Amino acid sequence: MRPMYFTETIEKPAPRNVIIRKAEPKNCPVFKVSAVIITYNEEKMIERTLAQLQWCDEIIVVDSYSTDRTAEICSSKGCKVLFRQFDGYGAQKQFAVSQAKNDWVLCVDADEVLTDELVKEITSLTEADKQYSGFAFRMNLVFLGKEFLYGKESGRYFLRLFNRQKGGITADKVHEGIHLEGPVKKLKHIVKHYSYTSIYQYLEKFNRYTRYAAEMGKRKGKHKSTFIILLAVPFNFTKYYLLERNCLNGLKGFYWSVFSTFYHFVKYAKINE
């Protein structure tokens, strides 16, 4: 789950009951890697994510003052835990990257888990791979406990490991990305993205995401006509369910298509509000 939304940026020291320890590297590749994660109330997910990052030289967690055991769990796993109020995904991740001691940074979300095969592939990189500015991983969506093998949300490549001397995180509040100068290599193995574990969790995030997307749309002057809004539902459902083959993902694929369709409709409505 991603952080809640705040309006200002404040760095504060860790609470006294949180022990901050440096992660012990186990099997680092030819270049030392700093893993960075932003968190807010991730106690149900974070251990699985951290377990696949123990090969990193360090793990930095920037937490938005979680009210659960997220910070405690991260500290117990050897992470460096920092606290910062949330002012957008891009800004929060930019701060996390700036705290890394190494130029090579692995930026993952708290609900993204590297597979054993991907970890082995990363730690097997050679000196020749230093020619690349970054490495992209293939992502498979896991929605309501089901791994999607079809659809646009699975099989896409996302840049996650990069040399910060060649670029960095964009400042977008939502749908942030990584912009680099230089070549990027695609690795073979996957990351599993445990995006939503329940419908309740999806709907809880839904209003926040559509609000931020609408704010960005308004700033860019992307107002939608009545015709576009009316067509949004049938067009997007056809796209997600049939054209992107989520129909092959069973009932969960149908749920995903309906929710994704409704996301666009609500976003457009909020832009015109």
Automatic annotation (TrEMBL):
GO terms for molecular function: transferase activity. Gene3D superfamilies: Spore Coat Polysaccharide Biosynthesis Protein SpsA, Chain A (3.90.550.10). Keywords: Transferase. Residues 34-128 form the Glycosyltransferase 2-like domain. InterPro entries: Glyco_trans_2-like, Nucleotide-diphossugar_trans. The keyword Transferase applies. It comes from the Bacteria. Signal peptide: none annotated. The keyword Transit peptide does not apply. It holds the Pfam family Glycos_transf_2. Belongs to the glycosyltransferase 2 family. WaaE/KdtX subfamily. PANTHER family: GLYCOSYLTRANSFERASE (PTHR43630:SF2), POLY-BETA-1,6-N-ACETYL-D-GLUCOSAMINE SYNTHASE (PTHR43630). This is Glycosyl transferase family 2. It comes from Niastella koreensis (strain DSM 17620 / KACC 11465 / NBRC 106392 / GR20-10).
